[in-house]
Amino acid sequence: MVDLDAVSHNVSELVALAGGAQLLAVVKADGYGHGAVPVAQAAIEAGAKWLGVAMVEEGAQLRDAGITEPILVLSEPSLDSFEDAFDLELTPTIYHRDAVHVAAAAALGRGGSSARWAVQLKVDTGMHRVGMSPAEVRDVAADVLASEALVLGGVFSHLAVADDPGRPETDEQVQRFERVLATLRDAGIDPGITHIANSAGAIAHPRTRRDLVRCGISLYGIAPSPALTGMVELRPVMSVTAEVSHTLTVHAGGGHRLRPDPPLRRGHPCRGASCGVRGRSASQLRPRRRRGDPRRRASGGSGSGHDGSDDGGGRTAGRDRGDHRPTW
Ligand SMILES: Cc1ncc(COP(=O)(O)O)c(C=O)c1O
């Protein structure tokens, strides 16, 4: 189940946390698997000002759904998709010089001589995923300015280990980023908006909040790491529920791995590893009453076997529903 009210709640919390910075809701990869369009709509309604996607196609999906807010394509589009990006009014990220020229040609070709298309530059300050090196930024920015069709809308970077508050690399990345911005300003270049914070930066490193915070994982209600849990009140957006197919009471010494004292009332859910639910998500499955199951009605007599009053064998467990745990 995807709880869009939880998205709204998380966005409100993150907007409040971000202070003067705007919130960019990262909805790439189909909204981290939650559904990009409904999550984007809920996020915008709750106060996000930008959306972030990885690919032009993902931006097209949001535009097709009628979303008009600014969309940053977080990675540099392939050279043959700049025209589409222009038509869709997306903001492309650039980190290669040839992409500046392709973007300018796309803007001129599709928008004519009056086109002014805002692009953003991504600099690699230590994440080592994508982005240009700090030494390249000034020249690429100068190319953008030299093109009448382009506007330098922003410069950004991405934090590598902000989810571990003790690591010195976050401050080092911030300093590297600030040096890049100072170089641009010294050259008389206005960088536009500047941003570096992901969820972990926004939550744990106030100094990284700048003009925009780009939040993904926290938007979906998950703290970026155990160390950051509870620093902002997040609600999980996705939950998996399963019907209980079988209940039993396990007595002390009655199980091979589990030896509960007092006896434990357990439910066995219909979904588990065999359905692709594994690891942490499997242990978070919550039992749900199986409606109208004829086996239940027959075995317990009262029809309330899943409330902990009957184990299918006529014994009374005396413990409530909260004691049912997944058993695989
Ligand atoms: C450039 C960029 N910014 C922000 C994010 C969001 O990061 P998080 O999910 O840690 O908030 C991502 C996600 O990978 C990203 O690629």
What does this structure look like?
With 328 residues, the chain is of the alpha/beta class. It has 2 domains: 4-228, Alpha-Beta Barrel (TIM Barrel); 241-323, no CATH class. Helix content is 33%, strand content 17%. It is built from 11 helices and 11 strands. The chain has helices spanning 4-18, 28-33, 36-45, 56-64, 82-87, 97-111, 137-146, 169-186, 199-204, 279-283, 294-300, and strands at 22-26, 50-53, 71-73, 91-94, 117-122, 150-156, 193-195, 212-215, 241-250, 264-269, 286-288. It has an 8-stranded parallel β-sheet with strand order 7-6-5-4-3-2-1-8. Strands 10-9-11 form a 3-stranded mixed β-sheet, with no helix packed on it. Helix 1 (4-18) crosses helix 3. The chain is elongated. The site of pyridoxal-5'-phosphate has 12 residues, from helix 9 and strand 8.
What's the rounded overall pLDDT mean? 86
Number of helices: 11
What is the overall silhouette?
Answer: elongated
In CATH, what is the homologous superfamily of the largest domain? Alanine racemase
How large is the share of residues in beta strands?
Answer: 15-25%
- Poorly predicted residue ranges: 293-328
Widest beta sheet: strand line-up: 7-6-5-4-3-2-1-8
